[in-house]
What does this fold into?
Amino acid sequence: VTRFSVVHETRYRYDSEIHLAYNRAHLLPRQTPHQAVTAAALLIDPEPDVRWDSEDADGNQVVFFSLERPHHYLTVTATSEVRLAPRPMPLAAALAWEDAVSAVRATVGRDRTLTLDTPLVRRSPALFGYATPSFPPGRRLHDAVADLSERIFSEFTYLPGTTTVSTPAEDVLAHRRGVCQDFAHLMVGCLRSLGLAARYVSGYLESGAVDGGAELIGAAASHAWVAVRLGDGTWLDLDPTNNLVDPQHHITVAWGRDYGDVVPLGGVLFGSGGGSTLQVGVDVRRY
Amino acid sequence: VDAGADRALARRIGVALDGLAPADLERLSVEARRRLRSSGAGSRPVRALDPLPVVIDAGTWAHIEAGVVQRVRLLEAVLADVYGPQRTVATGILPPEIAFGSPSLLPEPARPGGRWLTYAATDVGFGADGTPVVLGDRTGHVSGLGTALENRVVTAALHADLFTGSDVRPLTPLLDGLLGALGDLATRTDSAGRVVVLSPPRSDPAHESAAYLARTLGYTLAEGADLTVRRGALFLRAIGGLEPVQVVFRLVADAEADPLEINPSGPAGTPALLAVARKGAVTVVNPLGAGWAGRRVLGPFLPALAEALLDEPLLLDAPPAWWCGGPDRAAVLDHLHQLVLYDVAGVLPVDGRTLSQAGLEALAAEVEARPDAWVARQPVELATVAGVVDGRRVPTTAVTRVFSAITADGPVVGSGGLTRQEGGHGPDAPSKDTWVLAPQASDAGGAAAGPAGSGRSPLALVTARAQVDLAASLPVRAGEALFWLGRMAERAETLVRVARVVAEAPHLAGPARALGTLASAAPDHPGGRDLARAALLDGLLATGLRASVASLAGNAAAVDELLPAELYTAVRDAVETALALDSTAPELDLGGLDALLRSLAAAAGLAQEALVRGPGWRLLDAGRRVERALATVTLLQSLGPEPDAELLDAMLTAAISLIAYRRSYRTEPELTTVHQFLVDNAANPRSIRFQLDCLADDLDLLAVGPRRPARIALMRKAEGLRSLLHDLSALRRGFDELARQIELEYVAQVPLTRMQTGTRS
It folds into this structure.
């Protein structure tokens, strides 16, 4: 078991006074079969007028809060302690990828939704066409997704600032660049175009170099990756941004159909105009 | 009840309508236009109302009504299942692709305590053989009810004799049902429960129908920005402060309701509406997410759903439809050119009949790429009915939107509905009324007085419920528009009067100076007739006539549902007259200016005599008083040190005080007496003192709500200006400051702009 402590600070500074703000935060880590959350707290400064903590449709922790007095800044600090259990490669990953397709087709609940179009990810012939070379008939699911991940990693450029939160996967495919969120959407779209169930995962990487390797991309901020549903109903994490299959030390915060379900901190603000400055800092440490 | 007598009555009405000569139809069309124009919401072009109603006999209607009740029950059950246990998906009746593949299925809806549907609509047409066919269902936000109600009022008046003698079933039970159902929801938690009608913005053609419905039901009309979530509950932003809202009767789509959760890039809406609805602090009718059940892609599955959930076969026919995710795909692809295709994730259907060969191939490729996302439907050939287009009788198709209110006792189906041509379902599309005839007793025959029909006003509402005093409750947005409406109407009038004086006596410097100030002309403007023309005709002058009437029109349109039709018409006439003044003609159009002054005077008179003295009228009046006081100060300041009698005469004319002055003083005008008359004479309705008295009165009565102390202070400030009557410069500063503070306090308290934020990785 590896223990991590996480501090995720989001700091907005507004150029002019904000009078009213509504926010939804997906910033507190959820429990997963391999991840236990032993402590978690969300500090909001200024003190919100209303704060409601709840679980969303996927079982993620979501916090709604409103600030109803004039303010010039917002600082949201999520601190948590999580324990990650080692995960042996699931046996079902060694089965043919078509098994996972037919297995999810036999289900009728939320997992089945994850084979379909969602607001930010739409299946398409282009995505299908891009994915197909990695998925010859009968190939082991593990090998197929590893190949797809490797191709996205090598054929796409990590280039912040070229995409936005709502850039569709097809645009990412056309321009071959983006950030981790875009690569996650792209891979989710590829997997769903093949009939697999795929979800979007938001979370953290361990800061700094690990195991003597190079520092991972996305370690200084929150990160996004993908999970694919296996034939036995378990899920396998895939990180196309770092070309990792079943990463052992990714800390999961929340998952959903796409980014729109798990926006780390999203809000609607009312003020007299002007811009804002955003600073995000993530610190993940073993303890 | 006698089916023969039912049909005989329908035949008799049909004969009467068929017998209308082309000249009658022309007259009825003109009359319909006139009535729609004068019935209220006048800020948009008058929509087209076909004066020939569709007539449905009692027997046919009984079948439709039973079928509509069944569909409403079915869709309620489907919603409860798909947002609940999802048994119909688990048992394979509803494919997951159809159930879950649409963005209209919200992951976290606010689950209603009681039922999903409080109102709904069913679009019904008649096949070529006369059989009723359901062409669509509406379960989210249902538009068109206001239009249907207005069509009934107008059409009943157009055919007054025929209508009262024909035993047409009233729409009243539907409205009673709706009021009862909404009232029950409002009083569930709070005895002072308030219902608002949430409308799309004024720029949306559906706004007019929403406004008419709100007026008819007696609920406040609110746009998304009029509502605000505070301390975990929903409030109306009103002049008196925040007023709690318990029920939102929404006529806007999910995607336009709440940018915090549903559509971050969408319109402003009311952020956090879904969050407070989920907490139970407010009930949204129908709940966000309910529109899912009205999608056409459910068509192929409704017969099986009815069997499974109601244990009944569907009573009403619907066009045959097939899901491409199943074995029917090949057949659909073979007949694409004859079918209409619906995408589970999309909104607009694709009509294969209108596509080229290349278009069909592209569509086939799209279907092949995501077959489970597509449903195909066979178009129905509809029977034609008589319609009137441009005053001529032509055959048209007719699809009637039948509305239902769902009460504690079950669905109440409106007898009739909004009839439009097939495919013509935009809010601006021509529409007509629908007459459903009451069943006829076998011994009565003809137009026996049924219990429901004759002798009643077509929309007489019988349900009276405790509600918010609408005369005392005014959305802030409406207050702001009324304040500026008062200012702009007064400004336009002053500009015309002073410009006339300048045009008639161009050699006088005083009036020209005043006009230059009033219209914000450049200080070095040569003056004279050119200045008069510029003030009236130059659209670039910030406070010239054209800019003022443009603002007048915009502010009047923003509150048209609060204004009597005659007042609105007078304002519109003034605006049209002002904009029609010819800027190229060498001479000023004095006749046009006279007409303009008459319209403005009519508007001012109606504002005085036809509006309830609530906060809205007070703000309108305050705007007018501030503007008039400032204009009088400007006139007096432009007099110069030693004005002669001619100049004083001209000034009194500009201030419409010449005759009153002569009657008071019976001498040639002198500076001191003119000054006294226009400044300090409390009996002269043009004097500054008079404006101050009115303002103090208005501000006193506006001083309500939690901000009462600050508002009282504002009233005192107005009273304090009385001590400055000897000092024109101080008065100008005082009035400018007062106007600014009224605006800050009552209307644009904060110029709010929306920012959307979302952190990403």
Notes: The two ends of chain B are 71 Å apart (CA to CA). The first strand of chain B starts at residue 49 and ends at 56. Residues 444-455, 461-467 of chain B have pLDDT under 50 and may be disordered.
